[in-house]
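Morning run. Coffee first, then this:
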Amino acid sequence: MVQIRNVLIGALAGVASAISLGGIAHAQASASQATQSTVTVFRPITLTKNTDLSFGTVVRPATGSGTITISQTDGSRSLSGSGALLSTGPNASPGRATYTVNGEGGQTFSISVPANFNMTRSGGSETITVVLTPTATTGTLSNALGQAGSSTFGVGGQIPINDTTASGAYTGSFTTTVAYN
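And here it is:
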């Protein structure tokens, strides 16, 4: 009788284990986890041109060549080589192009200007190549995230002039682009 009782107790224990294991196996068949989602929204970035790039009025050299430079940092004009700089004339006063960037405070942005562009003589096909130089290639908007921010920068350049440069008014344009990094 003791033997039958031990067998029945062992059998019942096995059934209880099987039921218990079935419950554990069923609990492992799926799992759940809460997941957060986030987004940061920036106000649009804008670019405003405050002033154009102007080389003013210059006199070509009688012989030789020269280079007129407009500083990208302060807009000052200088001449290396031959020629002359005039402080009067039909063109706008010499100076660098200046810009204001507005957007999301505290954010960095890139500045892109072409390496050069051509100005063409009015009434002709002659060109002068302008080599551009920005004050920086990146910037940071003032203030902090959640507030409006602003920043300014300038673009200067250089033009060559020589004794064969055709007289006349030259104009051209280039595109400046800013973008959030």
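The two ends are 85 Å apart (CA to CA). Good start to the day.
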